[in-house]
Design goal:
The protein is 77% helix and 0% strand. It has 10 helices and no strands.
Length: 266
């Protein structure tokens, strides 16, 4: 007889409570973006309005911060795609002395607390007399974006190399017929995750930005010295959507990529 795979009621309630705990703050952010109160987070909101969206649209400081965040995330992701893919190809496709050490060093930046990475980068920039600028932010973000791309690419490389070499294909045949077509989804997923991480990064940016403000730094400053609180919530809605959609797309791309790889190995 088939086994009963239905989850117990207690497990369902625990899962629902966990989701509520995680998503309720996001719902409040969305709600207060429509509040008529511009100074405090009164509960319940005294009224609802769409006026803050127009106010946010007209704020030049919001657009400046958004533009900087998009530029930094785009360039950091591009650097990560190149470096992460090259390192993944070297580590997975060849054997050499120190290979595991290199793999550990590549993933180290994302394993360390962000404040450690930020302090290290700031100290290095000061030691080398490098002024804080747009490019120092990119260098800081690229350190952890490379890890995301590397993790996606190296897993795909190893899976593809193993399946094809077992079937007797040589290195060129493996790259041309299987790795190249199947690596695209892994890189796209890694790039989307890297973009999302860079777009909403705060800690490393704080140590490498100087006087410039990315969108998350702008939000932090607005919360400390508020002028129009609902504007911050409107911007937060944008950040949630900009970071959630690439992560969701990366999830489906990675899942689809695994299925296609499995089919290629049959």
């Amino acid at each position: 007889m088939p086994s009963d795979t239905r989850a117990p009621l207690g497990l369902k309630l625990a899962a629902a409570a966990g989701l509520l705990f995680m998503l309720a703050p996001l719902a409040l952010i969305f709600l207060y973006a429509f509040s008529t109160e511009d100074r405090t987070y009164a509960w319940p909101p005294p009224g609802l309005t769409l006026d803050w969206f127009a106010v946010t649209w007209g704020r030049t400081d919001v657009w400046d911060a958004l533009t900087l965040s998009v530029q930094v995330a785009t360039i950091s992701t591009a650097i990560a795609l190149v470096l992460g893919t090259l390192v993944a190809a070297a580590v997975s496709g060849t054997r050499f002395f120190g290979r595991e050490t290199i793999s550990l060093l590549v993933i180290l930046p994302i394993a360390l607390p962000g404040i450690i990475t930020g302090i290290s980068l700031r100290s290095a920039f000061n030691l080398l007399d490098i002024p804080f600028s747009f490019w120092t932010i990119i260098l800081g973000h690229a350190t952890f974006c490379v890890v995301v791309v590397y993790n996606n690419a190296v897993a795909r490389f190893r899976r593809l190399h193993g399946s094809l070499m077992d079937l007797g294909a040589d290195g060129f045949q493996t790259f041309r017929h299987v790795i190249l077509p199947n690596l695209g989804t892994a890189l796209l997923a890694g790039g989307m995750l890297a973009f999302a991480l860079s777009f909403d990064e705060v800690i490393v940016t704080t140590f490498t930005a100087g006087q410039q403000q990315t969108l998350p730094i702008w939000m932090l400053e607005e919360l400390i010295r508020p002028r129009q609180r609902p504007v911050t919530n409107v911007v937060a809605m944008v950040v949630v959507l900009v970071t959630f959609l690439p992560i969701l797309a990366a999830f489906y791309l990675t899942r689809g990529g695994e299925q296609s790889v499995a089919g290629a190995g049959k």
